[in-house]
Design a protein that fits this description.
The complex is a heterodimer of chains A (519) and B (368).
Chain A: H1 5-12, H2 30-41, E1 47-53, E2 60-66, H3 72-85, H4 87-91, H5 98-109, E3 115-118, H6 121-129, E4 133-137, E5 143-146, H7 176-186, E6 192-199, E7 205-212, H8 218-229, H9 239-246, E8 258-260, H10 263-271, E9 275-279, E10 285-288, H11 292-295, H12 300-303, H13 306-335, H14 343-353, H15 360-380, H16 383-403, H17 409-423, H18 428-466, E11 468-469, E12 472-473
Chain B: H1 13-24, H2 28-39, H3 46-68, H4 75-83, H5 85-117, H6 124-140, H7 143-168, H8 174-177, H9 185-198, H10 205-208, H11 218-250, H12 255-262, H13 273-303, H14 309-325, H15 330-362
Helix pairs in contact in B: 1-7, 1-11, 1-13, 2-9, 2-11, 3-9, 3-11, 3-15, 4-5, 5-6, 5-13, 5-14, 5-15, 6-13, 6-14, 7-11, 7-13, 12-13, 13-14
Classes of the chains: A alpha+beta (519), B mainly alpha (368).
Chain lengths: 519, 368
Amino acid sequence: MYFKSSKRNKKKEQDYSKREDFSIELSTSLEENIINIKKMLDQPGDLLTRPFVIGETGPACAIIYIDGLTDTKVINESIMKNIQSGADEIGKGFEEAETALLDRLSYHVISSASVKKVTTLDDASLAILSGETALFVDGTDELLIIDTKGWEDRSIEQPVSEGTIRGPRDAFTENIRTNTMLIRRRIRDANLRFKSHQIGRRSKNNLTVAFVDGIVHPELIKEVNRRLETIDLDDAPESGYIEEWIEDSFLSPFPQMHNTERPDKVATALTEGKVAILLDGTPFVLIAPATFGAMMHSPEDYYERWMIGSLLRTLRYFAAFLAVFLPALYIALVSYHPGLIPSKLAFSIAATREGLPFPAVIEAFLMEITMELLREAGIRLPKPIGQTIGIVGGLVIGEAAVSAGIVSPVMVIIVAVTAIASFSLPSYSFAISIRMLRFGFMIAAAFLGLYGIILAYILINIHIVNLKSFGIPYTTPFAPGFKSDWKDLVLRFPIPMMTKRPKFMQTEDDTRIDKEGKS
Amino acid sequence: MKSFEYADEEIGNSEIGYVIPSVVIGAGILSLPRVLAEGTVSADGWLPIFAGGGIAVLFTWVVAKLASRFPKQSFLEYSSVLVSKPLAFVLTACIALYFMVFASYEIRFVATLSQQYLFASTPKEVLSFVFLLVVTYAVAGSRVALFRLHQLFLPIIIGILCIVLLMTLPLIEVNHILPLFKTDWKGYLQGTKSTLLSFMGWGVLLFYTGLMNKPKKAVKAGMIGMCVPIILYVLLYLAAIGVMSNVVTANLTYPTNELAKVVEVPGGFFERMEIIFFTIWVMALFTTSIVFFDISVMAINSIFKKVKKIKLVLILAPVIYLMGMLPQNRLQLAKVSEGLGYAGICVSIIIPALLIILAKFRGIRGDG
């Protein structure tokens, strides 16, 4: 299997001697514990300590939390209020046995939903840094971690990168709990599983693998988890880091995982036996494995009626064809095979190219690069200006370039159509790959005309038949052919006819719809 | 991840079904109508196609039967059981050489054709070289990936052929096809021989059956696969005669391409269909070449087991290239093609027939 894990595993075995080791046990002295925690975090300004004593005679206690990551209201209501209002009651008889006091606090007093015990400084600091509150009791070498997380979040908004006319309007947010909630709201199956990983040596980010047990192929889960466990990054701010680490081939121009911010897309993928990877801090969820066919699908294909869905998909394949081949075909036809163009058109093209200083290749490259510049500028600029740049830049530069005699008007049409075609692809990262390939095809056409284009096409095909995404050939279900999966490939059959889950996913439960329907 | 059954290094029966037409449809089909028209009168050539095709299907059966008797074994392994080790080595080496020459012929043929239709002035060395690079890249990859390539390309190749055929329909004149059955038996025999030669390609089953997970199914899949080119050849031949008449067809170098030339694209979207046709046809030549190259690699690899596949590919590629550049002109190239035909009879008919007789006679089976 083509996977570069050996090198990375070796790396993991290295000893990080420079890093200070804080996995030391807690001491029994409250004083010492607090000093240690503060020392470890170097006395940050947002670390708050609140010492108190339970009852008149009870042991000294303290809570420590980070201001801003915690919900002060929760701390007040469920910890402080409960302890102090019943202080005499709790403290009674516990002058000697502080460990039992800890249990009593956890079972009877604190009214937060999640309370757990830890014994090392390392665990304690991680919990505090994640927004939980630590409760120290003098005389014990354990402490309570109380869930008090609460911080400002972006609310659920519309998806920015994947718009649809019809379909749910919610998108994932930066908060992984909101995201898992969005998935759970869609799949209320008891077999929906969320398996957690911790990513990032420094960032200690939460990562969750979502799948539906009983549908997904068990080996796929094993493989995903195995790859995730090899990850050894400092920091994973976006799921792109994860994607690049666990994908099958980083030399390939094609994305081997989907990224989406649409929960409905993730839910559908999960019921098809795929796996979703959610990372805290990013609204982009990864779906694995990815295939070429699925890259051309948009969730809207299923929401609109099947004829419309099928037509739109066919159109999208045509758009992909144009986006890759159109400038290359122009170069090839104009510079090598003018005989192929209908004579009237050939004359008019020749007339507009009259007096142009550059050969077709240079002309095409000039315009394509300008187009890419405009696109990039449009994304970086603030939104209102960005749109203006797109329109003004496109119109003005195109018009001016033609009247200045640098490019022919046909070339402007070609570039515009190519750009529109590449915008119509539903997956942004796939559209980027197509944009990249286009330049390769243009070079091939410049050297060898149509012969070069067909050879480049064959070359790309050789690459994608060799490419795999989590063990699944990228060209499935075209080749290896799964005829029953062709119902949901270029065409989208009516939903009652798609009774089986994708066969190429080798799902454990393959029936999506019972033929007879509900009796 | 080995657990996905279709993702490992084994192939199913549909893959074999795709390989056969993919190999057969290549260089031969372009000139076949001419070869047939030379020996037969009016449109009688369809009979020899069926006769040649029948023999081809028969020997596909023979080869598949033979190879499926020894599942998961290479040709060298089962032939050494049948005819002793040294002889098996010689056989394998000869077959490897045959496929290598065939691959180099295809690579040279691409250059000749593209010189004729696309670039008159670009040297054939360059054209062959870039083609060889692409072929080498394909062969250097995984072997099952090649089968996936056939699955992707064959529909496109058959599609363009069918489009050309459909568009010729209004141009066919019935009096070109009539009268029927005027050819003498010598003409029929001649035609049968030349079609049989252009159907050569089922020999690949000697090697590829060993990769299958259910080798028994190779027989049926191979025979069905063989029927596809037979039907296409008949349709193509009839279209060529119907549109251009027997006399014209007999005097054209590549009547199939010329057929694409007379076709007019509805709506006048582009002219000169034959260029489009040839461009797609590069794919057909490519699928043929990768199989031949891959089988030579496979055969030699079974002799030298310790050499890595990638090394072998890189050694063979320049050899194939140089062999392809040897013929000085089209006449010599035709000679090579003729020689390959006779060698093909040896490899694809005589050797498997002898081996299967031996196997039956001595009652040797590889599957217990």
